[in-house]
Amino acid sequence: MKTSLRPGVLLRNATVIVLTLIWVIPTYLVVVNAMTPVHSYTGSPVWWPAGFAFFDNVVQGWVAGQFGWPFLNSLLYALVGAGVAVLLASMAAFGLVIMPVRRTKLWFWLIYAGTLLPLQVFALPLYQASVQLGIYDTRTILIIIYIALCIPFAFFVTRNFLITIPSEIGQAAKLDGAGWWRMFVSVFLPLLRPALVAAFVFQFIYIWNELFFGISLTISPENQPVMAALASLQTQTSALSQPAILATAVVVSAPAIIVFLVFQRFFVTGLTSNL
What we know:
Elements: H1 7-35, H2 54-65, H3 68-97, H4 104-112, H5 120-133, H6 139-163, H7 167-175, H8 180-191, H9 193-209, H10 212-216, H11 226-236, H12 242-262, H13 264-272
């Protein structure tokens, strides 16, 4: 069967290949250089493996950067921040879409507007407020900040998914005598599962990779997230080799990749519903 090579198809395929290479080449270089033995590394990027010392490099970087607490902190921030934000956002979406609330567009934009401003706008007020409240350089301030940052996008995803659910389901639950809370917990929350998982995965990855507030609102290793510890690894330990730093970076990035791969089915379904 002969396939016609139309200019549009060629352009599309070429664009996909170029975009793929833009992402694949840096990732390939990171992995290859992370595997390179320290004694074989010359300071220039290595394009082909000159040996396999990945685990030795990880141990060297992990010990030098003391990643134990930062890793656990990021796990706490990502799980609690994303989980609470998605729950609160789904409740807000339920209120606007299902419950008889006036000025729904106004409430929508008031909640969603949180994603429209750059994070740097909030840095100084949050720093001053955290100092006055005595929660600067604590886990509490980062959990609060991450929950607040994640609510707008999670609200956007769950609200768009709720719109696709037939209104007859809510009316039937109401005729059966279900109150708003029971209707939310027993009827709509199970139906929202793809959107909830998609929003949770997206926000988990965001919090795991977040750096700005991690270095702005915490300074001690006991409270800093793992990306803040990774950023300071090179400056604090100038004698540490580049393969060790790259190998540690690969390991600390693994949880976000694993979460995405495990839940990618829900991720795609939840984000493509009525978007």
